[in-house]
Amino acid sequence: MPEVVFTPGRRRTSPDPADAPPRAAGPRSSPTLRQRALARMRIGLLGAAGFVGLIVVWQVVAVAEVIGNGLLPRPGEVLAVIWTGLGDGLAYDLYVSTSRVVIWVAIGIAAAVPVGFVLGWFPLARAVLNPLVNFFRALPPIALVPLVIVYFGIGELARGIILMYAAFFATVVIVFEGIAGIEEKYVRAARTLGADRFEVLLRIVLPFSVPHILTAARVSLGIGWASLVAAELVAAQDGLGAVIQNAGNFLDIPRVYAGIILIGLSALVMDLLIRLASARLVRWQDRGDR
Questions:
Q1: Which one, 15, 21, 119, 168, has least CB within 10 Å?
Q2: 3-state secondary structure at position 6
Q3: Is 42 exposed, middle or buried (0-12, 13-18, 19+ CB in 10 A)?
Q4: What is the mean pLDDT of the chain?
Q5: Is the pLDDT score of 31 beyond 70?
Q6: Direct distance between the N- and C-terminal alpha carbons of the chain, in angstroms, rounded to an integer
Q7: Which phi-psi region, left, alpha or beta, contains residue 235 (left: φ > 0; alpha: ψ -120 to 50)?
Q8: Are 116 and 174 in contact, with CB atoms under 8 Å apart?
Q9: Pairwise CA distance, residues 52 & 49, whole Å
C-alpha cells in the first residue's frame, strides 16, 4: 500500500517503488568501431600466434634432425626458395593454379546451387536424387583421373572437370541442407499474407539461402585447392601441383614445401575474402563471431 506522508499544511502520498511500472529495457549498446577493431586485432594476433608456434616447432625438429638425413628443410630454406622462386616462374605457377581453382570452382558452384534448391524445395526430387548425390560426393576426385583422361583428354578441360566435380557435390549438399532447414513458420507467414509459391521462393527461401551459399563457396574452394594436385596430375606443365610433382621427382624437398605453403596461403586468403563478403551480405543475420 502507498505510504501517507504528513507535512505541515498539506497531505501527500509517496508512491511505493514496488507499485511503479517496470522500466522498459533499453537497447544494448553496440560495440564501437574501436572496440570492433581491437577485437579483430586480437583474433588476428591469436591466429598469427598459432603459425609462429608451428614454425618454432618446425625449426626445432629440423635442427634436431628428428627426420634423418636432412629430409626436413628448415623454415628459412623454404622461405628462401619461395622468395627467389616467385621471381623465377613460381609466381606464374601460383597465378595459373589460382585461376584454375577460381574459375572451375565457380562453375561448379553455379551448377550446384539450382540442384540444391530443387533438392531442398521439392520432397520428391529429394527422395529420388539424394542417394545419388551422397554416392558421388563420397568419391575422391583423384579416383576419377583415369576416366577423365579417357573421356576428356589431357588438356585444360580435363583438369577443370576434376575441380568442378570436387566443388559441385559439396555445394549441392550444403545448399540442400540449408534450404531444407528453413523454419516452416516463415513460409506459413508468407502464405498467410497471400504469397504464392514463386514469391515464397523469391522472398523467403532465396534470402535465407545466401549464408549457406557463401558457406558452400568456402568449403568448395577448400576442396578445390585440396584437389588441385589431383587435377594437375593430368599432364599439367604449370601450376603449383605440377611444381610439387616435379620437385618430388627430383627430391627437391624445399621446393615441395614451398608449393605446399603457397597452396595453403592462397586458400587462406580466399577464405578470408569470402568471410569478409559474408559479413557484408548477411549483416542482417544474428550470429556471433565465426
A1: 21
A2: strand
A3: exposed
A4: 81
A5: no
A6: 52
A7: left
A8: yes
A9: 5
Task: Give the helix ranges, DSSP H, for 181-252.
Answer: 184-192, 197-200, 206-226, 228-231, 240-249
**Set of cell numbers at residue 184:** 516452416
Nearest Cα neighbor of 76 from 59, 53, 94 is 59
Q: Judging by beta carbons within 10 Å of its beta carbon (0-12, 13-18, 19+), is residue 86 exposed, middle or buried?
A: middle
238 CB neighbour count, 10 Å cutoff: 15
Residue 201 Cα to chain centre, angstroms:
25
Measured distance CA(281)–CA(191) in Å, rounded: 26
Q: Answer for the pair 13, 4: CB distance below 8 angstroms, yes or no.
A: yes
Give the global pTM: 0.76
What sign for the dihedral angle of Cα 277, 272, 288, 41? negative
Q: How do residues 2-17 score in pLDDT, each as one tens digit?
A: 444 444 444 444 445 4
Cell numbers standing for residue 168: 559441385
Helix (H) or strand (E) holding 14: strand 10-14
Among left, alpha and beta (phi > 0; psi -120 to 50; other), residue 170 is alpha
Partners of 4 in beta bridges:
13
Are 89 and 237 a contacting pair, CB within 8 Å? no
* Assigned C-alpha cell, 105: 570452382
